[in-house]
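C-alpha coordinates in:
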Protein backbone atom coordinates (compact mmCIF):
# COMPACT_ATOMS: atom_id res chain seq x y z
CA UNK A 1 0.00 0.00 0.00
CA UNK A 2 2.81 2.39 0.96
CA UNK A 3 6.41 2.17 -0.21
CA UNK A 4 8.94 3.63 2.23
CA UNK A 5 9.44 6.61 -0.08
CA UNK A 6 5.70 7.22 -0.52
CA UNK A 7 5.10 6.91 3.22
CA UNK A 8 7.84 9.40 4.12
CA UNK A 9 6.72 11.77 1.36
CA UNK A 10 3.12 11.60 2.63
CA UNK A 11 4.23 12.39 6.18
CA UNK A 12 6.36 15.34 5.06
CA UNK A 13 3.56 16.68 2.85
CA UNK A 14 1.01 16.27 5.64
CA UNK A 15 3.25 17.99 8.17
CA UNK A 16 3.99 20.82 5.75
CA UNK A 17 0.28 21.27 4.99
CA UNK A 18 -0.62 21.41 8.70
CA UNK A 19 2.06 24.01 9.48
CA UNK A 20 1.31 26.02 6.33
CA UNK A 21 -2.44 26.06 6.90
CA UNK A 22 -1.95 27.08 10.53
CA UNK A 23 0.32 29.99 9.55
CA UNK A 24 -2.09 31.13 6.85
CA UNK A 25 -5.11 30.94 9.17
CA UNK A 26 -3.37 33.00 11.85
CA UNK A 27 -2.37 35.60 9.25
CA UNK A 28 -5.97 35.87 7.98
CA UNK A 29 -7.33 36.28 11.50
CA UNK A 30 -4.84 39.08 12.18
CA UNK A 31 -5.97 40.84 9.00
CA UNK A 32 -9.51 41.24 10.34
CA UNK A 33 -9.19 41.48 14.11
CA UNK A 34 -6.63 42.37 16.71
CA UNK A 35 -6.55 38.77 17.93
CA UNK A 36 -4.90 37.98 21.29
CA UNK A 37 -2.68 35.31 19.74
CA UNK A 38 0.19 35.75 22.16
CA UNK A 39 -2.19 35.38 25.09
CA UNK A 40 -3.61 32.20 23.53
CA UNK A 41 -0.11 30.79 23.15
CA UNK A 42 0.68 31.73 26.75
CA UNK A 43 -2.39 29.77 27.90
CA UNK A 44 -2.06 26.72 25.67
CA UNK A 45 1.67 25.95 25.49
CA UNK A 46 2.37 25.69 29.26
CA UNK A 47 -0.61 23.36 29.63
CA UNK A 48 0.69 20.96 26.98
CA UNK A 49 4.24 21.14 28.28
CA UNK A 50 3.05 20.21 31.78
CA UNK A 51 0.91 17.43 30.32
CA UNK A 52 3.93 16.07 28.43
CA UNK A 53 6.15 16.39 31.50
CA UNK A 54 3.80 14.40 33.76
CA UNK A 55 2.42 12.08 31.05
CA UNK A 56 4.56 9.05 32.05
CA UNK A 57 3.24 9.19 35.62
CA UNK A 58 -0.33 9.57 34.37
CA UNK A 59 0.06 6.67 31.91
CA UNK A 60 1.46 4.38 34.59
CA UNK A 61 -1.37 5.22 36.97
CA UNK A 62 -4.04 4.76 34.29
CA UNK A 63 -2.73 1.45 32.96
CA UNK A 64 -1.30 -0.02 36.19
CA UNK A 65 2.22 -0.09 34.77
CA UNK A 66 5.27 -1.33 36.65
CA UNK A 67 8.86 -2.16 35.76
CA UNK A 68 9.07 -5.70 34.36
CA UNK A 69 11.19 -7.90 36.61
CA UNK A 70 14.38 -8.89 34.70
CA UNK A 71 14.17 -12.50 35.91
CA UNK A 72 10.45 -13.12 35.55
CA UNK A 73 10.36 -11.37 32.15
CA UNK A 74 13.83 -12.27 30.93
CA UNK A 75 12.73 -13.01 27.34
CA UNK A 76 10.88 -9.70 27.21
CA UNK A 77 13.98 -7.78 28.34
CA UNK A 78 16.21 -9.60 25.85
CA UNK A 79 13.81 -8.93 22.98
CA UNK A 80 13.54 -5.22 23.76
CA UNK A 81 17.32 -4.90 24.06
CA UNK A 82 17.92 -6.70 20.74
CA UNK A 83 15.34 -4.73 18.74
CA UNK A 84 16.49 -1.44 20.28
CA UNK A 85 20.08 -2.23 19.28
CA UNK A 86 18.96 -3.08 15.73
CA UNK A 87 17.00 0.19 15.67
CA UNK A 88 20.02 2.24 16.73
CA UNK A 89 18.58 3.48 20.02
CA UNK A 90 19.34 2.80 23.67
CA UNK A 91 17.34 0.10 25.39
CA UNK A 92 14.16 1.68 26.79
CA UNK A 93 12.77 0.82 30.21
CA UNK A 94 10.85 -2.46 30.02
CA UNK A 95 7.39 -2.18 31.56
CA UNK A 96 4.41 -4.46 32.17
CA UNK A 97 0.79 -3.27 32.49
CA UNK A 98 -1.47 -5.38 34.70
CA UNK A 99 -4.63 -5.36 32.59
CA UNK A 100 -6.52 -7.91 30.51
CA UNK A 101 -6.84 -5.64 27.47
CA UNK A 102 -4.38 -7.04 24.89
CA UNK A 103 -2.33 -4.03 23.86
CA UNK A 104 1.05 -2.30 23.99
CA UNK A 105 2.37 1.25 24.06
CA UNK A 106 5.52 3.36 24.08
CA UNK A 107 5.88 6.56 26.09
CA UNK A 108 8.33 8.70 28.05
CA UNK A 109 10.25 11.97 27.98
CA UNK A 110 13.65 13.37 28.99
CA UNK A 111 12.65 13.16 32.65
CA UNK A 112 11.43 9.55 32.74
CA UNK A 113 13.40 8.08 29.84
CA UNK A 114 11.83 6.08 27.02
CA UNK A 115 9.61 3.18 28.02
CA UNK A 116 7.93 0.26 26.28
CA UNK A 117 4.99 -1.50 27.91
CA UNK A 118 2.94 -4.55 27.03
CA UNK A 119 -0.10 -5.77 28.92
CA UNK A 120 -0.52 -9.09 30.68
CA UNK A 121 -3.52 -9.62 28.40
CA UNK A 122 -1.26 -9.33 25.35
CA UNK A 123 1.20 -11.89 26.68
CA UNK A 124 -1.66 -14.26 27.46
CA UNK A 125 -3.25 -14.11 23.99
CA UNK A 126 -0.27 -13.84 21.59
CA UNK A 127 2.54 -16.22 20.69
CA UNK A 128 5.95 -14.82 21.59
CA UNK A 129 6.99 -14.19 17.99
CA UNK A 130 3.85 -12.04 17.61
CA UNK A 131 4.70 -10.17 20.82
CA UNK A 132 8.16 -9.60 19.35
CA UNK A 133 6.62 -7.90 16.30
CA UNK A 134 4.43 -5.74 18.55
CA UNK A 135 7.54 -4.67 20.48
CA UNK A 136 9.17 -3.80 17.15
CA UNK A 137 6.24 -1.51 16.37
CA UNK A 138 6.50 0.26 19.73
CA UNK A 139 10.26 0.71 19.47
CA UNK A 140 9.59 2.19 16.03
CA UNK A 141 7.52 4.90 17.74
CA UNK A 142 10.43 5.68 20.05
CA UNK A 143 12.97 5.76 17.22
CA UNK A 144 10.73 8.09 15.19
CA UNK A 145 10.04 10.40 18.20
CA UNK A 146 6.32 10.10 17.55
CA UNK A 147 5.23 11.23 21.02
CA UNK A 148 7.14 14.51 20.55
CA UNK A 149 5.69 15.07 17.07
CA UNK A 150 2.15 14.50 18.28
CA UNK A 151 2.59 16.61 21.41
CA UNK A 152 3.82 19.61 19.38
CA UNK A 153 1.14 19.23 16.71
CA UNK A 154 -1.64 18.89 19.27
CA UNK A 155 -0.85 22.44 20.42
CA UNK A 156 -1.99 23.89 17.07
CA UNK A 157 -5.70 22.97 17.12
CA UNK A 158 -5.88 23.82 20.83
CA UNK A 159 -4.56 27.26 19.98
CA UNK A 160 -7.45 27.89 17.58
CA UNK A 161 -10.00 26.53 20.03
CA UNK A 162 -8.82 28.89 22.78
CA UNK A 163 -8.53 31.77 20.31
CA UNK A 164 -12.06 31.16 19.03
CA UNK A 165 -13.50 31.14 22.53
CA UNK A 166 -11.63 34.30 23.49
CA UNK A 167 -12.92 36.09 20.39
CA UNK A 168 -16.46 34.85 21.05
CA UNK A 169 -16.51 36.15 24.63
CA UNK A 170 -14.83 39.35 23.47
CA UNK A 171 -17.68 39.93 21.00
CA UNK A 172 -20.25 39.59 23.78
CA UNK A 173 -18.70 42.42 25.76
CA UNK A 174 -17.77 44.52 22.72
CA UNK A 175 -19.28 48.01 22.93
CA UNK A 176 -18.04 49.42 19.61
CA UNK A 177 -20.52 47.65 17.33
CA UNK A 178 -17.93 45.18 16.01
CA UNK A 179 -19.42 42.05 17.59
CA UNK A 180 -20.76 40.54 14.36
CA UNK A 181 -17.43 40.23 12.46
CA UNK A 182 -15.69 39.06 15.64
CA UNK A 183 -18.29 36.31 16.15
CA UNK A 184 -17.85 35.16 12.55
CA UNK A 185 -14.09 34.96 12.96
CA UNK A 186 -14.55 33.14 16.28
CA UNK A 187 -16.76 30.54 14.57
CA UNK A 188 -14.28 30.23 11.69
CA UNK A 189 -11.48 29.67 14.20
CA UNK A 190 -13.41 26.85 15.88
CA UNK A 191 -14.24 25.26 12.52
CA UNK A 192 -10.56 25.39 11.60
CA UNK A 193 -9.83 23.71 14.95
CA UNK A 194 -11.95 20.72 13.84
CA UNK A 195 -10.34 20.60 10.40
CA UNK A 196 -6.89 20.73 11.94
CA UNK A 197 -7.78 17.91 14.33
CA UNK A 198 -8.80 15.72 11.39
CA UNK A 199 -5.53 16.53 9.60
CA UNK A 200 -3.48 15.66 12.68
CA UNK A 201 -5.35 12.37 13.06
CA UNK A 202 -4.41 11.58 9.47
CA UNK A 203 -0.78 12.36 10.30
CA UNK A 204 -1.04 10.08 13.34
CA UNK A 205 -2.33 7.25 11.14
CA UNK A 206 0.69 7.70 8.87
CA UNK A 207 2.98 7.39 11.92
CA UNK A 208 1.25 4.11 12.78
CA UNK A 209 2.01 2.77 9.30
CA UNK A 210 5.59 3.96 9.77
CA UNK A 211 5.90 2.06 13.08
CA UNK A 212 4.37 -1.04 11.44
CA UNK A 213 6.97 -0.81 8.69
CA UNK A 214 9.74 -0.50 11.29
CA UNK A 215 8.60 -3.76 12.89
CA UNK A 216 8.50 -5.47 9.49
CA UNK A 217 12.07 -4.30 8.78
CA UNK A 218 13.66 -5.13 12.15
CA UNK A 219 11.92 -8.38 13.12
CA UNK A 220 12.37 -11.50 11.03
CA UNK A 221 9.09 -12.09 9.14
CA UNK A 222 7.85 -9.11 11.11
CA UNK A 223 5.11 -8.28 8.61
CA UNK A 224 3.41 -11.67 9.02
CA UNK A 225 3.98 -11.79 12.77
CA UNK A 226 2.60 -8.29 13.29
CA UNK A 227 -0.43 -8.97 11.07
CA UNK A 228 -1.23 -12.10 13.05
CA UNK A 229 -0.68 -10.25 16.33
CA UNK A 230 -2.94 -7.36 15.31
CA UNK A 231 -5.75 -9.79 14.50
CA UNK A 232 -5.38 -11.57 17.84
CA UNK A 233 -5.41 -8.20 19.61
CA UNK A 234 -8.59 -7.30 17.75
CA UNK A 235 -10.14 -10.67 18.59
CA UNK A 236 -9.17 -10.24 22.24
CA UNK A 237 -10.76 -6.81 22.40
CA UNK A 238 -13.89 -8.24 20.76
CA UNK A 239 -14.00 -11.00 23.38
CA UNK A 240 -13.72 -8.48 26.21
CA UNK A 241 -16.53 -6.42 24.67
CA UNK A 242 -18.78 -9.49 24.52
CA UNK A 243 -18.03 -10.26 28.16
CA UNK A 244 -18.87 -6.67 29.05
CA UNK A 245 -22.15 -6.94 27.16
CA UNK A 246 -23.06 -10.12 29.03
CA UNK A 247 -22.30 -8.44 32.34
CA UNK A 248 -24.58 -5.56 31.44
CA UNK A 249 -27.40 -7.88 30.41
CA UNK A 250 -27.16 -9.84 33.63
CA UNK A 251 -27.04 -6.57 35.59
CA UNK A 252 -24.37 -7.97 37.89
CA UNK A 253 -21.74 -5.37 37.06
CA UNK A 254 -23.56 -2.26 35.91
CA UNK A 255 -20.90 0.04 37.27
CA UNK A 256 -17.99 -1.94 35.84
CA UNK A 257 -18.70 -1.45 32.16
CA UNK A 258 -15.86 0.94 31.41
CA UNK A 259 -13.23 -0.82 33.51
CA UNK A 260 -14.19 -4.18 32.01
CA UNK A 261 -13.69 -2.85 28.51
CA UNK A 262 -10.26 -1.56 29.42
CA UNK A 263 -9.35 -4.81 31.18
CA UNK A 264 -9.29 -3.26 34.66
CA UNK A 265 -7.75 0.09 33.73
CA UNK A 266 -9.07 3.30 35.21
CA UNK A 267 -11.42 5.62 33.25
CA UNK A 268 -8.42 7.92 32.77
CA UNK A 269 -7.07 5.30 30.37
CA UNK A 270 -9.89 5.96 27.93
CA UNK A 271 -8.37 9.36 27.07
CA UNK A 272 -5.03 7.76 26.22
CA UNK A 273 -6.11 5.41 23.44
CA UNK A 274 -3.75 7.03 20.88
CA UNK A 275 -0.83 5.47 22.81
CA UNK A 276 -2.03 1.95 22.12
CA UNK A 277 -1.00 -0.24 19.19
CA UNK A 278 -4.70 -0.81 18.38
CA UNK A 279 -7.80 1.26 19.10
CA UNK A 280 -9.85 -0.64 21.74
CA UNK A 281 -13.07 0.76 20.28
CA UNK A 282 -12.55 -0.97 16.92
CA UNK A 283 -12.70 -4.72 16.39
CA UNK A 284 -12.83 -7.01 13.36
CA UNK A 285 -14.66 -10.03 14.68
CA UNK A 286 -13.12 -13.46 15.23
CA UNK A 287 -10.65 -14.43 12.49
CA UNK A 288 -8.60 -17.51 13.29
CA UNK A 289 -6.48 -18.43 10.28
CA UNK A 290 -4.34 -16.90 7.54
CA UNK A 291 -6.95 -17.46 4.82
CA UNK A 292 -9.64 -15.63 6.80
CA UNK A 293 -7.24 -12.78 7.56
CA UNK A 294 -6.30 -12.41 3.88
CA UNK A 295 -9.95 -12.41 2.82
CA UNK A 296 -10.80 -9.84 5.48
CA UNK A 297 -7.90 -7.57 4.45
CA UNK A 298 -9.09 -7.53 0.84
CA UNK A 299 -12.60 -6.37 1.70
CA UNK A 300 -13.49 -2.75 0.95
CA UNK A 301 -14.12 -0.45 3.87
CA UNK A 302 -17.77 0.24 4.56
CA UNK A 303 -19.02 3.82 4.72
CA UNK A 304 -19.20 3.50 8.51
CA UNK A 305 -15.60 2.27 8.67
CA UNK A 306 -14.38 5.12 6.46
CA UNK A 307 -16.16 7.70 8.60
CA UNK A 308 -14.89 6.12 11.81
CA UNK A 309 -11.30 6.10 10.54
CA UNK A 310 -11.53 9.79 9.68
CA UNK A 311 -11.74 10.57 13.40
CA UNK A 312 -9.30 7.90 14.58
CA UNK A 313 -5.59 8.11 15.40
CA UNK A 314 -5.15 4.55 14.04
CA UNK A 315 -5.69 3.24 10.51
CA UNK A 316 -8.45 0.73 9.91
CA UNK A 317 -7.00 -2.72 10.51
CA UNK A 318 -7.86 -3.82 6.95
CA UNK A 319 -5.60 -1.09 5.60
CA UNK A 320 -2.84 -1.95 8.07
CA UNK A 321 -2.92 -5.57 6.94
CA UNK A 322 -2.73 -4.49 3.28
CA UNK A 323 0.17 -2.16 4.06
CA UNK A 324 2.03 -5.09 5.61
CA UNK A 325 1.69 -6.75 2.17
CA UNK A 326 0.18 -10.04 3.27
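Residues out:
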Amino acid sequence: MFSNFKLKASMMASLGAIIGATTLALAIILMFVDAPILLSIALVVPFFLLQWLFAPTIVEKAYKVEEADPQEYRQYHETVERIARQSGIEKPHVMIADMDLPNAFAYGNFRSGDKVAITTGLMKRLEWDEVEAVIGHEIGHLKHNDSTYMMVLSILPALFLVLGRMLFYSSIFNSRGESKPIILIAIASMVFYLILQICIMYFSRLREYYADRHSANTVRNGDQKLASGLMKISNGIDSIKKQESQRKRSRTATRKGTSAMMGGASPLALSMKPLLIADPDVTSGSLTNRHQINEYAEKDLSLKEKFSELFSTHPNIKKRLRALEL
